[in-house]
Design brief:
Bound molecules: N'-Formylkynurenine
Order of helices and strands: EEHEEEHEEEEHEEHEHEEEE
CATH architecture of the largest domain: 3-Layer(bba) Sandwich
Oligomer: single chain
CATH topology of the largest domain: Glucose Oxidase, domain 1
Number of strands: 16
Length: about 300
């Protein structure tokens, strides 16, 4: 099998003003006999969402290459990074709140009486707060008329381009100043505070890192898609905060889901990862554990 690419020069006038001139631009093409107008159409599509007023290509050269084996395709060249804590019976997510109870509904032993000889199952029951382990808060967590877990579209939860903000070892609060030069529009903004180092210890909830009200407002104003933190709460939960929750209040009012208790954010590059945290679609429910993870482009294999 051969793959075909076109290499060409191009002159493009954009709808909103401005011009692009390209030399040696390359595009994948469906077959070896594409016409210049087909290449022009492919170029216009590749430039979306920019709208093109006029485009012309010249000096077209067709390149044929052997089709790469399946394991080598773009889609497969990613590395997965685990960003969630393990949930175990009785564990403490937030000190002072009850941990999950995990019990059998049907044991393997008891199931032998239900199924054919040699066929057995375990059916398990869990009783827990929605805010257990690494979880996602829907707008409904804060607002009775906000989207609940069943109402969040996958576009807000899966495959989001991520930007990782390093805030390890400084002040507890992540401030608007620290985000001033970060491009957040349409991105999962992941706050790497190092708060997860104390996960599972009595100190996890004490003087923990958080997002300030000003920073939350900046993320709303600039259109962040989702906000995550590797700490006990996106808000300051110390006595100083007197029960106020400005980050939840602002982000969830804007329909921006919040993920708390992330871990392992140090493994992510500042840009280039894609973030996923999908809860089950429980109607009338506000928060639920997620398998939060990122995919990162894998390093090219050595030549
Ligand atoms: N978002 C609410 C509730 C909350 O954080 C929460 C509720 C139940 C169990 C654990 C919680 N927080 C941290 O794990 C708050 O900020 O207090």
């Amino acid at each position: 099998m051969l793959d075909y690419r076109a290499e060409f020069d191009a002159e493009v006038t954009l709808d909103g003003g401005g011009e692009l001139r390209a030399r040696g631009f390359r595009l994948n093409i469906p077959h070896a006999d594409v016409t210049e107008s087909e290449i022009t159409a492919l170029l216009v599509a590749a430039l979306a969402p920019q709208r093109v007023e006029r485009a012309a290509v010249s000096d077209v050269r067709i390149i044929a290459e052997p089709h790469p084996p399946a394991a080598d395709t773009q889609a497969e060249r990613v590395r997965f990074v685990e960003l969630s804590h393990v949930i175990t019976a009785g564990m403490v997510t937030a000190p002072g709140l009850p941990g999950p109870e995990i019990t059998p509904h049907l044991t393997r032993l008891a199931s032998r009486g239900v199924y054919a000889p040699g066929t057995e199952f375990a059916i398990d029951r869990i009783s827990m707060l929605g805010n257990t382990g690494t979880y996602l808060d829907s707008p409904y967590h804060r607002y009775a008329d906000g989207a609940d877990l069943a109402g969040l579209p996958l576009e807000q939860l899966a495959g989001l381009p991520a930007v990782v903000v390093r805030a390890v070892g400084g002040e507890r609060g992540v401030t608007a100043e620290m985000l001033a030069h970060v491009t957040v529009a349409g991105r999962a903004v992941l706050l790497h505070t190092g708060g997860d180092r104390r996960w599972g210890t009595p100190d996890y909830g004490v003087d923990a890192p958080y997002l300030t009200a000003g920073a939350a407002q900046l993320l709303v104003d600039r259109g962040a898609a989702l906000v995550g933190i590797d700490a006990v709460n996106i808000d300051d939960v110390s006595p100083d905060a007197a029960g106020e929750r400005p980050a939840h209040t602002l982000l969830l009012a804007a329909g921006i889901p919040v993920v708390e208790h992330l871990t392992n954010l140090r493994e992510l590059p500042p840009l280039g990862a894609r973030f996923t945290a999908t809860p089950p679609r429980v109607a009338g429910f506000s928060a639920f554990p997620v398998r939060a993870f990122a995919t990162v482009p894998a390093e090219e294999p050595e030549a």
